[in-house]
Amino acid sequence: MNNILNEIGIENYLFLSVLLFCIGIFGVLYRRNAIIVFMSIEIMLNAVNLLFVAFSTYHQDSQGQVFVFFSMAVAAAEVAVGLAILVSVFRNLGSIDIANLKNLKG
Amino acid sequence: MEQNLVLLLLLTPFVGFLFNVFFGKKVGKAMSGAIGTLSIVVSFVVSIYFFMQLNQTGKPIQISLFDWISVSNFKLDFGILLDQLSLLWLLFVTGIGSLIHLYSISYMNDDENMHKFFAYLNLFVFFMITLVVGSNLLIMFIGWEGVGLCSYLLIGFWHKNQDYNDAAKKAFIMNRIGDLGFLIGIFILGSVFSTLDFVQMENGLNVGTANTGMLGLAALCLFIGACGKSAQLPLYTWLPDAMAGPTPVSALIHAATMVTAGIFMITRMNFLFDLDIDSVHLVNLIITIVGATTAIVAATIGLAQNDIKKVLAYSTVSQLGLMFVALGLGAYNVAVFHVITHAFFKACLFLGSGSVIHALHGEQDMRKMGGLKKAMPITFWTMLISTLAIAGIFPFAGFWSKDEILITAFHGNITIWIVCSICSINTAFYMFRLMYLTFFKTFRGTEEQKHHLHESPSLITIPLIVLAILATIGGAINLPGSMWLNHYLEPIFATVSHEEHVLGNTEYMLMGIALAGAILGIGLAFSKYIKQNVVPNEDNEIKGLTKIVYNKYYVDEFYTFLIVRPINGLSNFFRTTLEPALSKTVFRLANVTYVMANQGKKAHNGSVGLYLFAFVIGVCSIIIYLFLV
To answer: In terms of DSSP H, where are the helices of B440-499?
Structure first.
């Protein structure tokens, strides 16, 4: 089979996925804007989705791709809820800087 | 039929107790006293019935009421054993008990808590009957503890006086020491025989299946129990203090019945104490020595006491010592004989002293008595008879029983015999000292008291007269020649060891010596208190040897020094040093947690960034752990 996977090689997908995941992590850790943090989380999620699809193709097994559909659907719902939360946070605090969210202080 | 009668015998005093507890106050003093007395009389009558029946059939009555304990191979019935020994005890416990109840109706009439007094007295008789008729050691132990409880309640009956409360507590605690010994003895016997039933234990010994190694120790432990209850050295100090109770209590519990429980127990267990093994021989030797020492120590203390009841109390301790001498020498029947005669004359003496105290409105000091012979003739004559009996004058009851003990001691060990003889000279001396100081010469109390002197009412004098008659003729149950008691008790004893007393020259000589000793004691008392008209000194004028004896050889002080002080010191140390140290340590530990929590609280600063960072670090560590380790 002469597909795109053979031309590029599975390892490069892995590298890309790890890279995306790390970008996501660093975004979560270093940015204070809640929307950016949210986006970073989405990047991490999609890095994993990418891995799923890559391995699914590699193993010639469509189950992984099915899972990705589900996970993307759930992620969409999650984004809707998350953004709604962010809107309400903004309405209450006037900003979406996570440094201002200190209600959990022990 | 038999079972119902046994229940009647056992439970009537208990019903009397319940009645007096719940309705005693309502029905009034006379009724309360009558019910209390009647319930004991019923028991007495039933005891007589059983006694007659036993005399006809000669077979002990065994009744098992129900299965009590059954654990693996250890089985115990809640049973009743009415044999020669327990019936004998029942007869004089309920008999003398009835007389003393009768006496108490008049004696306690001025007391507002009379119904309570009768309730306790009934309860005491109930427990005493339980102790006597139980078919195994555990039932005996129930009674044993019960009579201890009643003794405590009755010593502290006038509980508004703190000294009396202390005396009650002392009696209870001293008894507890002995009880621990008794309990350990029961445990050992239980583990050796897998039962505590008297008959089964005896059979087990006869068959020879039991392991005899521990039996010496068991015998010693039982003897320690007897020491506590029967006021032997070193646990005797509670009995003189127990005189704080009302006089009928002293007569019933602390002279006639409860204090003989130790002798009853050892007689009951005679198959154990008769074993032919070295350790048991040693225990018997200890019993003899303890008995003789107690007898002589108490008899000498009695010489210098001025409280009329204290004299009688020490005399009781001394007589109990003599009984233990007999037990230690294996002459159980002799000990039982002396228990019975002693119950007669000592109950009479105590009741007589109660009559005197009653007439003097609570005065117990003999230095403030004297000359009561005219005013109280019945009390005087009955007490004189009992005094002659306890001094061992022919032909009163005490002469025969004490003489048997002396003969036994003479055949057993000459030193013990000498000690016992000195002891009986002392007895004669202090008892006649009591008589002379109380009844002869002139009255030394106040004019007011002299004016009120009177003979006690008939409810008090009738029991005195009955007991005096018994003290006179009581020796008849075991006269040399007929030896009715010895034959009667024969089935009880494992080894029929007593050879018929042939009244040889030795015996006559010993009787003569005993009689001469008693007369010597009386003569000494006569010359000192009648001829020289000596009245004992006031407390602060007592000097020298008399002072040591008057202060009871400082035994109480010695115990205080040896036991009470160290314990107080130790508890003080615990209170002032150990307890604060412990609590400080605990508080320090708590403080460490507190400080750590305060530090940890700082991590919870509410910064979502930090939480996320911690989360990532955590996940990374888990992954690293999973992959690398």
So the answer is: 447-452, 458-473, 484-489
Question: Tell me: the pLDDT tens digits for B447-505?
Answer: 777 777 778 888 888 888 888 888 888 888 877 767 777 778 777 776 555 555 556 77
Chain A residue closest in CA terms to B610: A29
**Segments making up each domain of chain B, as ranges:** 283-292+325-550, 558-628
A33 close to A63: Cβ distance less than 8 angstroms: no
- Whole-number pLDDT of residue B549: 72
- Claim: this prediction has a pTM higher than 0.90: no
Q: Is the dihedral of CA B216, B219, B225, B230 positive or negative?
A: negative
Nearest C-alpha of chain B: how many angstroms from A106?
5
Q: Residues with Cβ < 8 Å from B314, sequence gap 6 or more?
A: B240, B298, B299, B301, B302, B305, B430
pLDDT digits (tens, 9 = 90+) for B70-99: 887 888 888 888 888 888 889 889 999 999
User: 3-state class of B18 per DSSP?
Assistant: helix
Taking the C-alpha atoms of residue B213 and residue B275, their distance in angstroms, rounded to an integer, is 12
A60: in domain: yes
Name the residue among A99, A103, A105 with its Cβ closest to that of B609.
A99
Q: Which two tokens stand for residue B215?
A: 């039996």
- Distance, in Å, from the CA atom of B156 to the CA atom of B596, rounded to the nearest integer, reads 57
User: Mind spelling out the 3-state secondary structure of A78-106?
Assistant: HHHHHHHHHHHHHHHHCCCEHHHCCCCCC
- Name the closest residue on chain B to residue A100, using Cα atoms: B607
Question: How many domains is chain A partitioned into structurally?
Answer: 1
For residue A40, what are the domain limits? 4-98
Contact call for A28 and B607, based on CB within 8 A:
no
User: Is A105 within a domain?
Assistant: no
Given an 8 Å threshold on Cβ–Cβ distance, is B612 in contact with A29? yes
- Across the A/B interface, how many CB contacts are shorter than 8 Å? 33
Whether B616 and A28 lie within 8 Å, measured CB to CB: yes
Residue-wise pLDDT for A6-30, tens only, equals 778 888 899 999 999 999 999 988 8
- Provide the ipTM: 0.78
Residues of B within an 8 Å Cβ radius of A: 601, 603-609, 611-613, 616
Give me the residue label for tokens 């999609």. A46
Cβ B85 vs Cβ B492: under 8 Å: yes
The alpha carbon of B611 is separated from its chain's Cα centroid by a whole number of angstroms, namely 78
Q: Which helix (H) or strand (E) holds B388?
A: helix B377-391
Residues of B in contact with A104 (CB under 8 A): 604, 606, 608, 611
Nearest to B212 by CA among B133, B262, B258, B281: B281
- Which H/E stretch holds residue B153? helix B137-155
CA distances from B473 to B96, B322, B345 (A): 15, 21, 11
Using alpha carbons, select from B605, B611, B616, B608 the residue that is nearest to residue A89: B608
Is A83 part of a structural domain of the chain? yes
Residue A45 lies in a domain: yes
**Which of B383, B384, B398, B389 lies closest to B339, judged by CA?**
B398
CATH value at residue A17: 1.10.287.3510
Q: B608 and A103: CB-CB below 8 Å?
A: no
Integer Cα distance of B184 and B172 in angstroms? 18
